[in-house]
Amino acid sequence: MKLDKNSIILLIDKLKPSNVLVLGDLILDEFIFGYVNRLSREAPIPIIIKKTHEYVPGGAANAANNITSLGGKAFSIGVVGNDISGVNLLNTLKNNGINTDFVIIDSSNPTTTKTRISASSRQSVKQQVARLDTLPSNLPLSKDIENKIIDNLNKAVNVCNTILISDYKYGVISDKIIEYCNFLSEKNNINLIVDSQDNLSKFQKAKIITPNQPEAEDVVGFEIKDKESLYKAGKKLLEITNSEAILITRGSEGMALFESNGDITEIPAFNKKEVFDVTAGDTVVSTISLALANNLSLKESMYLANLAASIVVKRFGTSTTNLNEMKEELLNW
C-alpha cells in the first residue's frame, strides 16, 4: 500500500469530530522559565528570577489533548489529587475542550506533576536547570477508586466508539481495569487501542498496540537490529498479546505495522532531519485512535500517525498538531 500526497490529504479530510474515551495516567507538565544574573551565597547554585509559568497536559492528558487538537472529542478518565496541581490540570483540560466529567479526585495521592525549570542569562540560550517530579505515594490505587473508574467507564462508553489506554505506570491501569476494558470492547464492539510503558503481555485482544522500539525489545527479549529481527519481534508481540495489530514506532527508522492476518507494512519517517524531541508517542496513538474511530483502516491510520509525529518531533516537550498543519507539512514534503 503506497499513498501519494493527494490520497493522504483525502484521509486527513476523513478525520471528523468522533468521540474517543482516553483512559490512563493524567500528568500535569509544569514549565517554569526565568533568567539568571548571579549565584546564590547560600549554595553554589544560580538564583532564577521567574518570568513565565505554563501548565501543559501530560501523559494520558496529553493523549486527550492530541485528540482534541486533531478535531476529535476526548473524554478523559483518570485520577488527580485534591491539590492545586489537580485544579490546574483540570482547568487546563477544560480550557482545551476536553471533557473531564469522568475524572476522579483521589485525596490519598497527589496529582502526578513534572515540573521543569529552565533558565538563561544574557549571554546564554535557555536550558533546563532542574526537574521536580511529584508522584503517587499510595499504590496500588484503592479498591474504591478502582471501582469509580469502572463506573465511569460504563458511563463514558455509551458516547464513545473507541477506548484509548494511555499507561504511564502510575497506577490507573490495573489488571482489573484492563480486564474490564476488554469486556467493554467485546460487548460493545468498539476499538481498544493501547499505548503502554508497562509489560505489554498484560494487554490482550486489543485492536492495536503501539510500542516504541525499546519497549518492544524489552517485551520480546532481544534487540531489533535488522529486518529479520524486526519481523521476528512483530510476530512475537502479536502472539504474546493476541492483538489484531502491533505498530512498532522506530524514530528516524519510521514505523512497522504487523497485522494478525499476516500483513506487514513498513513506512519511512516523514521527517528524519529536524528531530528536537522524540516524545511523539502520544501523538501517534491519538492520531490512530481518531482515525480508527472514523473507520479508517489500520494502514491508513498509520500513515496519518506518521505524518502527525513528523510535526511534533520538531518541538521541545509536550506538543500537539492539527489537521491544517498536517496538510501544510505534507505539501512541503
Note the beta-strand portion: 25-35%
| DSSP summary: helix tally | 10
User: What characteristic shape results from the CA principal axes?
Assistant: globular
CATH superfamily: Ribokinase
CATH architecture: 3-Layer(aba) Sandwich
Proportion of residues in helical segments: 25-40%
CATH fold name: UDP-N-acetylmuramoyl-L-alanine:D-glutamate ligase
In whole angstroms, the N-to-C terminal distance is 19 Å
Strand order of the largest sheet: 4-1-9-10-11
Characterize the largest beta sheet: strand count, sense, and whether it forms a barrel.
5 strands, parallel
Radius of gyration of CA atoms, rounded to a whole number: 20 Å
Compute the average pLDDT: 92
Number of domains: 1
Structural class: alpha/beta
Strand elements, count:
14
Look at the structure and give the CATH class. Answer: Alpha Beta
Summarize the helix and strand pattern as letters. HEEEHEEHEEEHEHEEHHEEEHHH
Poorly predicted spans:
none
Keyword list:
single chain; 333 residues; alpha/beta; UDP-N-acetylmuramoyl-L-alanine:D-glutamate ligase; 5-stranded parallel beta sheet; 4-stranded mixed beta sheet; 10 helices; 14 strands; globular
